[in-house]
Write a structure and sequence with these properties.
Length: 291
């Protein structure tokens, strides 16, 4: 089993004909994902990488049955691309683009809500979602892990890859990179809920980072709603106080938002928190070996 992305998912790529879109379309196809076309209004009616290019998301869905879109368009055009996907009511849109203005992210997130939340948004500024052995929508390497029964939700792309690799002998049901921007379409809590309900997931790895209160809110949700074991890592334990960090969402206000505060909130509800990514992998390894 998996969450949101399965072997039956049919993927289109908005921006497939650009450099990044081309490269990652090839990688998704090579991984076995069912990429069925691309969207570029200026190149509608042509083919690219052996796939048809459509003028709109709606047309692509009608012609191919696509239910997932991966967005590889420049930041200035991302808002319109996502809103087009929402108008077409595609169930899942994965926004890889980084540098999207927060105001634009807020606008397309609110637009999805106004339209009845028929489209789940993952991202922006994220590596995407992968269900190993089934499908891959985004830029997560397909060959670093195996299919298994661990679920992973992460703010960080590189830490997503590291944990997937370190736990490759156990494997993953689905790994979701939600992105680290201040406004994102899918949260830790959304993924925790889905993994809790997924019969193919036995345990969950959650990766957060300093700034904001997403991890504290996730801790409160875990206490009330998650019975499966959760291990976590919070990036930023060694971040110097008062220094601006790379991720736009990593804003620390006083003691709130620090790695230590998040660690304490999670441990209070029974989540084991590693001090390093490798320690976090070891904690999950102990849980899986004991099953």
């Amino acid at each position: 089993m998996a969450i949101w992305l399965t072997e039956n998912s049919k993927i289109i790529v908005q921006g497939m004909t650009g450099g990044e879109g081309t490269k990652h379309t090839r990688r998704m196809l090579a991984s076995g994902a069912r990429v069925v076309g691309g969207v570029n209004a200026r190149k509608a009616g042509t083919t690219h990488e052996g796939l048809p290019v459509f003028g709109t998301v709606k047309e692509a869905m009608e012609q191919t049955g696509a239910d997932v879109s991966v967005v590889f368009v420049p930041p200035a055009f991302t808002k319109d691309a996502v809103k087009e996907a929402i108008d077409a009511e595609i169930p899942l849109v994965v926004v890889i683009t980084e540098g999207v203005p927060v105001h634009d992210s807020t606008e397309f997130w609110a637009y999805a809500v106004d339209k009845g939340n028929k489209t789940r948004i993952i991202g922006p500024n994220c590596p995407g979602i992968a269900s190993p052995g089934a499908s891959n929508a985004g830029i997560i390497p397909a060959d670093i892990t195996t299919a298994g029964r661990i679920g992973l939700v992460s703010k960080s792309g590189t830490l997503t890859y590291q944990l997937m690799y370190e736990l490759r002998d156990f494997g993953f049901s689905t790994a979701v990179g939600i992105g680290g921007d201040p406004v994102i379409g899918t949260t830790h809590i959304d993924a925790l809920q889905a993994f809790q309900e997924d019969p193919g997931t036995d345990a969950i790895v959650m990766i957060g980072e300093i700034g904001g209160d997403a991890e504290e809110r996730a801790a409160a949700y875990i206490e009330q709603h998650v019975s499966k074991p959760v291990v976590a890592y919070v990036a930023g334990f060694t971040a110097p106080e008062g220094k601006t960090m790379g991720h736009a969402g990593a804003i620390v206000s006083g003691s709130a938002g620090t790695a230590q505060a998040k660690k304490e909130a999670l441990e209070k509800v029974g989540v084991r928190v590693g001090k390093t990514p490798s320690e976090t992998a070891r904690l999950m390894r102990e849980i899986m070996q004991a099953r």
